[in-house]
Write a structure and sequence with these properties.
With 163 residues, the chain is mostly helical. Helices cover 37% and strands 4% of the residues.
Length: 163
């Protein structure tokens, strides 16, 4: 699948302001990505008898992606209960998005409280061949701001700066 700076030969936008990030759907939007992920999770959940499905979307620091909004999560949950044998038979699915209304700073704080080693994570949309984060894409910008708001240094390597 193409159509996105994350899946095709399209430049990743860099240096965008917060307003630019929240007012436009960026070229890093992957068509139907979360719909596809959730569809697979729904099918698997039905097979194994699970009725709770979790997704890590975020509506506050979401870079304009339409499939990270509460309306999408609600609509998919509704679809899950209309489009499956389990849902029709009355064994409803519940879609959980625990990060949806948290800021990036709150997510980082929660991760730290849970023992997440952020040194082995990356959010970058355009890392170098050796794995350094670009520090300029929307995702790097949001991550760096989240760490700064917690008065913490991000432990990963960025182009032009050591960890």
């Amino acid at each position: 699948m193409g159509g996105s700076a994350l899946t095709a030969d399209i430049d990743v936008p860099k240096g965008r302001s917060g307003d630019e990030m929240s007012n436009n759907i960026p070229s890093t939007y992957v068509p139907a990505r979360n719909t596809i992920f959730l569809s697979h999770a729904l099918g698997f959940a039905e097979v194994i008898g699970a009725r709770d499905i979790f997704i890590g979307v975020n509506a506050l620091d979401y870079s304009g992606y339409p499939d990270c909004r509460p309306a999408f999560v609600s609509a998919f949950e509704h679809l899950a209960n209309l489009a499956t044998k389990a849902g029709v038979d009355g064994s409803a699915f519940k879609l959980h998005a625990p990060l949806i209304s948290m800021s990036k700073a709150e997510i980082i704080r929660l991760g730290i409280s849970l023992g997440v080693d952020y040194g082995v994570t990356s959010s970058c949309y355009d890392p170098t061949a050796d794995g350094k984060a670009c520090g300029q894409c929307d995702s790097c910008h949001l991550r760096l701001r989240g760490f700064a708001e917690n008065q913490l240094a991000d432990p990963i390597h960025y182009v032009g700066r050591a960890a």
